[in-house]
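dumping the sequnces here before i forget
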Amino acid sequence: MSVLKVFWQDPYLSEIDAGVTSVKSDIITLDKTIFYAFSGGQQSDSGTVGGYEVLKAEKSGMEIEYTIEPGHSLKKGDKVKVLIDWEKRYRLMRLHFAAELVLELVYQNYNRPEKIGANITKEKARVDFCWDGRISDIFPELKNKLDELIHKDLPVISAFDDETAQRRFWEIEGFAKVSCGGTHIKRTGEIGEIALKRDNLGKGKERIEIYLM
Ligand SMILES: [Zn+2]
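..and the predicted 3d for all of it:
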């Protein structure tokens, strides 16, 4: 049995009680967790397990391995509290979903250019494309479409495509259905006001940066 990923059922929890299922030196696993491990361009959460700071959270197949501070006293079977930095997580969720909307809008309205990268931190999100010219030329139109989706405060469905394989998707009815194992907000309005910025990565490669206001 791999860890129960409660961050999917309820991405709004910042605290949970869990059990330690294995301890190998400073690496532990849990029976359930709210602590997201880096995946799909979304950063790991920050926080503690049993009062010990988590130094690294890493996916290993369907399992998540947490590296905690050396010198801990955790043992298999211990009951622990898992706490995450909610302010960081919520910024990640809002920026992650803003990036999802930008990507879908660019795909749907500008001939599906090739995506060559994406990354989300709590400061900003970015999506990189193969693109001739300045991608900021589309910003006025793109921003209007984006603001419309946000201001309509549309419900976001998050669920399993295939529960055994742990494949997830998000969907906004009438707009898009997209595979993603990240943590998603419930309504588009949670993103709030955003700003777009252009960067050039060299010939034919353009970056869209997204900031929360
Ligand atoms: Zn996602």
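The longest strand covers residues 15-24.
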